[in-house]
Specification:
- With 190 residues, the protein is an alpha+beta fold.
- The protein has a single domain, classed as BB2672 (60s Ribosomal Protein L30, Chain: A).
- The chain is built from three helices and seven strands.
- It has helices spanning 47-68, 88-94, 97-106; strands spanning 3-16, 19-35, 75-82, 115-120, 126-133, 144-149, 158-166.
- Strands 1, 2, 3, 4, 5, 6 and 7 form a seven-stranded mixed β-sheet that branches.
- α1 packs across α2 (88-94) and α1 (47-68) packs parallel to α3 (97-106).
- The termini are far apart.
């Protein structure tokens, strides 16, 4: 499967609630638009989508990490918007461990499960990609996300596949929980 288009989003936060954010929070997302080979028909075997997600994921993750520079990724998330002639399951098939492992590689490693969201929608849809710390899911400071709007995608027979990264947790975090500095990095949770 070939990427038809690539969209990129960058959100830099330098001041939040009147407080300087140091270092600034940078959130990025890169979207690959591809044709959905199973649009308009039921296909029991979705493994071709899972297989294709590896190379697509590698390409967009590399782009996203470049957009994050000079910062290093601390959190990540993934998502897919499936055009109206497809099924939500088509996007889920592309966001399996195969895609997740490519994102982990691009991030320089990661132990935590990668949060995700999929939905079917028409062009112009927004999607919230959830973030969590790449090494410990229970680090609350990194519960965040990036909202993107796909102004002219996906078309009914397309899939928009999304990877997203951030360089730090939310600005002004103060609701407790384990700190990033306390991560044990053993089980992906703490």
């Amino acid at each position: 499967m070939q990427i038809k288009r690539t969209l990129a989003f960058v959100d830099d936060v330098a001041i939040d609630a009147g407080q300087t954010v140091n270092p600034p929070l940078r959130k990025v997302a890169v979207v690959a638009i591809i044709d959905n080979p199973f649009a308009g028909k039921f296909e029991k075997d979705l493994s071709p989508l899972t297989k294709a997600s590896e190379e697509i994921g590698r390409h967009i993750s590399k782009m996203a990490i470049a957009l994050l520079a000079p910062h290093k990724p601390e959190s990540y998330g993934k998502g897919a918007v499936i055009g109206t002639n497809g099924e939500q399951e088509h996007g889920v098939a592309m966001l399996t461990t195969v895609f997740g492992n490519v994102m982990r590689d691009a991030a320089g490693g990661g132990k935590a499960w990668i949060s995700s969201l999929t939905k079917r929608a028409a062009p112009g849809a927004s999607i919230d990609i959830p973030f969590a710390h790449k090494d410990a899911l229970y680090v609350r400071s990194h519960y965040d996300g990036i909202t993107i709007t796909l102004t002219d995608a996906p078309l009914p027979d397309e899939i928009a596949l999304i990877c997203a990264f951030a360089n730090r947790g939310r600005p002004n975090h103060r609701v407790g929980g384990p700190k990033a500095s306390e991560i044990k990095g053993v089980d992906g949770l703490t």
